[in-house]
Amino acid sequence: MAYTHVHRAFLQACSNHGTISKQNALEVLIGIYARYGDGDTVPNDDDVIDVVAKINERIHQFDQKIVYTHFEPLDKDFYVFVNLQESPIDLHQNVFTAQELHFFRVLLRELTLSEDHTLSMIMCLNFTNDTVGETVKPLPKTRAEQLLNEWEELGYFLVLDDKLHFGPKSVVEFDKYLTKNYADIITRCCLCNVTIFYGVRCASCPQILHKDCLKKYLRRLTNCPSCKVLWSVSI
């Protein structure tokens, strides 16, 4: 398959949105096909997969990728445009101020350190007083609210029940960053060895696993992979 205007337009859409649901990705591709593709062809989910694969062949050299991921809190699938560099936060240094980037880092840190990886919105706004030395002034709370909305739209965060959660983009893009900076805190699923942002805890031991990994595991076995006690927690 040649790299065409269809691929370029879909890449642009993913880059602009940051995070696109599986359904929206198909709708975007249908619109792109109407403009650049075969007018008699209506793309389907398999066509989205093929287009993404072709794009990834091109952008991998730039440490970029469109990642397909299942986001457990919403039980939805997303395509996420990510930068694969070790510290992707630095890529936004020309977009956000030092204050704003620091606020973003603080949110990542506090979400990682919190027991359930959530923060109340009041706590998030209070973190605007967390400054770096004397050179960075506290971020105005009105700007912090704007940033939270913007970062949620991009998929970095998710607000549910007035609490901030990791969004699908952060889950994919900041895995290496958080693992490097918070190695003693980050938990990895013993079934897939990928960082757990959302998971299910065993009733008999501290083990936490991804819900999807656990579902596949329990199709074959019925005991906890860690303590070997019969798994009893509903998923």
TrEMBL record:
Q: Where is the RING-type domain?
A: 189-228
EC number, as in UniProt: 2.3.2.27
Localization per Swiss-Prot or TrEMBL: Chromosome; Nucleus
Give the record's GO biological process terms: double-strand break repair via homologous recombination
**One example GO MF annotation:** zinc ion binding
An annotated GO cellular component of this protein is: Smc5-Smc6 complex
Enzyme class, spelled out: transferase
InterPro entries, sorted: Nse1 (IPR011513), Nse1_RING_C4HC3-type (IPR014857), PKC_DAG/PE (IPR002219), WH-like_DNA-bd_sf (IPR036388), Znf_RING (IPR001841), Znf_RING/FYVE/PHD (IPR013083)
Alphabetical keyword list: Chromosome, DNA damage, DNA recombination, DNA repair, Metal-binding, Nucleus, Transferase, Ubl conjugation, Ubl conjugation pathway, Zinc, Zinc-finger
Q: Which SUPFAM superfamilies match?
A: RING/U-box
Provide the catalytic activity annotation. Answer: S-ubiquitinyl-[E2 ubiquitin-conjugating enzyme]-L-cysteine + [acceptor protein]-L-lysine = [E2 ubiquitin-conjugating enzyme]-L-cysteine + N(6)-ubiquitinyl-[acceptor protein]-L-lysine
The annotated subunit structure for this chain is: Component of the Smc5-Smc6 complex.
Q: Which family does it belong to?
A: Belongs to the NSE1 family.
Protein name, UniProt field: Non-structural maintenance of chromosomes element 1 homolog
- Organism the protein comes from: Anopheles minimus
